[in-house]
Design a protein that fits this description.
- By secondary structure, the chain is an alpha/beta fold.
- Helix content is about 30%, strand content about 15%.
- It has a domain at about 70-175: 2-Layer Sandwich (Nucleotidyltransferase, domain 5).
- It is a single-pass membrane protein; Single-pass type II membrane protein.
- GO terms for molecular function: transmembrane transporter activity.
Length: about 180
């Protein structure tokens, strides 16, 4: 705040020159500082959030007639513990414990299985991969599987819950017991 200077009285009648104050009033500088801060806050470009795109199927799909998918055109991947992937191409009626195969995420593992199943599919346009993560699988396992979908150019795939009958076969094959009901 500004200081009030008092006039000093001289008894001798001489008028002396008034001495200037050596103190600087900082009030206008504080206002200027806040104005500058406000100006730079409004003119600064803030970082934009990174968003991952999500591709959705087209809306004009016929709801009355779903496409018929044969077992030869599907590959079921069960993501298990210890970076293991169990796979088969059978339905519930034909699937047994000895018909579930096991692989890993190496280049010769999952990638070659996907390529082989895709090349052996009768209708390559309808080839679909069904990904079923268990409670034993990690987030990294799911990401690695999705990376393999991109590498092998597999465009039709889905992540679904594993049914109890298939979970029982997985537990028998892997020697684990899951906490699913």
């Amino acid at each position: 705040m500004a200081q009030i200077e008092e006039k000093q009285s001289n008894d001798g009648g001489k008028v002396r020159a008034k001495k200037a104050s050596t103190k600087v009033d900082m009030t206008p500088l504080a206002d200027l500082g806040f104005l500058l801060i406000t100006f730079f806050m409004f003119t600064t470009t803030f970082s934009k959030p990174n968003v991952m795109g999500l591709n959705m199927p087209p809306k004009n799909i016929e709801k009355n007639k779903p496409p018929e998918v044969k077992n030869e055109n599907t590959l079921t991947l069960i993501l298990g513990k210890d970076d293991k992937v169990y796979w088969h191409q059978l339905d519930k009626t034909l699937l047994t414990l000895d018909k579930i195969s096991e692989t890993n995420y190496s280049r010769e593992g999952l990638r070659e299985i996907i390529k082989t199943a895709k090349s052996n599919a009768p209708d390559k346009e309808l080839f679909t991969i069904i990904i079923k993560p268990t409670d034993d699988a990690t987030y990294e396992n799911v990401v690695n599987t999705l990376d393999e979908m991109e590498i092998t150019e597999s465009t039709k795939y889905g992540i679904v819950d594993i049914p109890t009958w298939e979970l029982d076969l997985y537990e028998q094959k892997s020697g684990t017991s899951s906490s699913n009901p």
